[in-house]
Design goal:
The strands form two sheets. The chain has a three-stranded parallel β-sheet with strand order 1-3-5. A two-stranded parallel sheet has the order 2-4. The protein has one domain (2-103). It is built from four helices and five strands, in the order βαβαββαβα. By secondary structure, the protein is of the alpha/beta class. It is 39% helix and 16% strand.
Length: 104
């Protein structure tokens, strides 16, 4: 069975409670194997992603995702790997003795 998440929740997956309600509905479906289609999803919050992944892990169903946008895939990665922090590159600092040296 295939479930389009934008039809059941929204194209903006923002609230933890929405993920909880979505999985409550998924658990009531008769099929054991369910494909969740992320087509059309524009946004996913960290809290929705966290709740989604936690509920998926606890689910009695066999779940797989399809058509997952890159932004959603990245948020799932951030939630699954919280210790990997993004580091900004170190700025290059140089000493300026004269103001006209900046423009040459």
């Amino acid at each position: 069975m295939k479930v389009l998440i934008t039809q059941k929740v929204s194209d903006n997956l923002a609230f933890r409670d929405s993920a909880e309600a979505f999985f409550h509905e998924i658990e009531t479906l008769p099929d054991q194997s369910i494909t969740i289609d992320f087509s059309g999803v524009k946004f996913i919050s960290r809290s929705f992603a966290h709740e989604y992944l936690a509920r998926k892990k606890q689910s009695s169903k066999t779940l797989k995702e399809t058509h997952v946008p890159e932004s959603v895939r990245k948020m799932f990665h951030v939630v699954l790997h919280p210790s990997k922090k993004f580091e900004l590159p170190k700025p290059t600092v140089r000493r300026i003795d004269r103001i006209d040296a900046v423009f040459t």
